[in-house]
Automatic annotation (TrEMBL):
Parts forming coiled coils: 42-73
Keywords assigned: Coiled coil, Golgi apparatus, Signal-anchor, Transmembrane
Bilayer topology: Single-pass type II membrane protein
Record localization: Golgi apparatus membrane
GO molecular function: acetylglucosaminyltransferase activity
Pfam families linked to this entry: MGAT4_cons
InterPro entries: Glyco_transf_54, MGAT4
Chain ranges of the MGAT4 conserved region domain: 98-375
Protein name per the record: MGAT4 family member D
């Protein structure tokens, strides 16, 4: 009987051990399967990361390729410009000089390649050069409204005599309306005699042949076509004015014909530029509005103009500036906020603003534009 109990106990223990072994094997199998699944997920994750990395590298390569292409096109433009200048110099008299930068227009604007000398008409000017600041003001007719006299009075009256001597204000008439040209000339010669006599105030007129025909560029409504033509023309106006001002000064200040300036604005600009800690800046904003109050080094202007001319049909000039800064400072993988922070290294904003927009009537008939600089 006792032996029977022992056998039963042994059998029971054996059964328990067997069951426990099976349970352990089952758990080990499940754990192994989980490890295999985890490993598969890790491998899949690594594969996704690799694909993303390859995609990013491909995007970077495409961007670099595009930038190299832009650089190649600019180099081609430079080479073409040099050849065109050499040809033109052989035809000009010894007393004539051709600014190489204007010859660059022939590369970007094919309709000009058969033209002779490209240069705006100098209506009033004594060829003043070697100054610290050139201030550019493009102007067009606004029908019965004009702000140019108010703008010039503000700009010139708020210079010190030494600042006026060390600067030149350039009014660029970008309008084919002969009556408007005559009005501007009469007004300036009557109101600003001293500045005209000293050469500190110049007036140029942009010939109409410099503008390309864009009527067939896009299928647009009549109103949209007018707006598009105005934007294209405005970019070209800025470019031509920049090229004219470039050899005259160390710095170029972009203004518009419907603004006013704060007292001692040029003194504040001079002090800020001389005391700035970084020398890597590309331009300084003395107003947050559009293309008003933007300060450039004159030596940098040809590079800006070439970039603007590559895309002059696509966007207004202030947006082209935004794209230029993105290309110069930001990677495709950078976030918007990070990109803005990087741009601050070369794009400096001065506050409070030194210029305020005062015009309400646009050059487009019937259109009003009411916007102000909140930091003025």
């Amino acid at each position: 009987m006792r032996t029977k109990h022992v056998n039963l106990l042994i059998a029971f223990v054996a059964t328990v051990l067997f069951s426990f072994s099976c349970f352990c094997i089952s758990r080990l199998t499940q754990a192994n399967n989980q490890l295999i699944n985890c490993r598969n997920h890790i491998l899949e994750f690594e594969d996704n990361i690799l694909r993303l990395k390859n995609k990013t590298e491909k995007s970077n390569q495409e961007l670099m390729k595009a930038l190299k292409q832009i650089k190649h096109e600019i180099t081609k433009g430079d080479n073409l410009s040099v050849n065109l200048v050499k040809k033109k110099l052989s035809k000009l008299s010894k007393n004539e000089a051709v600014p190489n930068t204007f010859e660059d227009l022939k590369f970007f604007l094919p309709h000009l390649r058969k033209e002779g000398r490209i240069y705006p008409d100098v209506v009033i000017g004594k060829g003043k050069t070697g100054v610290s600041f050139a201030l550019g003001i493009p102007t067009v007719s606004r029908g019965n409204y004009t702000y140019l006299k108010q703008t010039l009075t503000s700009i010139l009256s708020r210079m010190t005599p030494s600042e006026e001597k060390d600067s030149v204000v350039i009014v660029a008439i970008a309008d084919s309306n002969e009556d408007y040209l005559q009005y501007v000339v009469r007004m300036i010669t009557k109101k600003f005699k001293r500045q005209v006599k000293s050469g500190s105030l110049e007036v140029i007129s942009i010939p109409t042949f410099l503008y390309p025909n864009i009527s067939n560029a896009k299928q647009l409504t009549e109103d949209s076509q007018k707006t598009q033509s105005r934007k294209v023309k405005q970019v070209l106006d800025f470019c031509i004015l920049m090229l004219y001002a470039q050899p005259k000064a160390m710095y170029y200040l972009q203004l518009e014909d419907d603004i006013i300036a704060k007292k001692m604005y040029l003194t504040k600009i001079t002090d800020f530029v001389h005391n700035i800690t970084s020398n890597n800046w590309v331009y300084i904003e003395f107003s947050i509005l559009g293309f008003i109050g933007k300060l450039f080094r004159c030596e940098d202007l040809p590079g800006f103009v070439r970039f603007f001319l590559m895309f002059y049909k696509e966007q207004p000039i202030d947006l082209l500036m935004e794209y230029m800064f993105q290309i110069k400072m930001c990677d495709p993988v950078d976030s918007f906020d990070n990109c803005k922070e990087l741009q601050k290294q070369i794009r400096i904003q001065y506050k409070p603003s030194l210029f305020q927009h005062v015009g309400t009537h646009s050059s487009l008939s019937g259109k009003e534009q009411r916007y102000n600089d909140i930091y003025y």
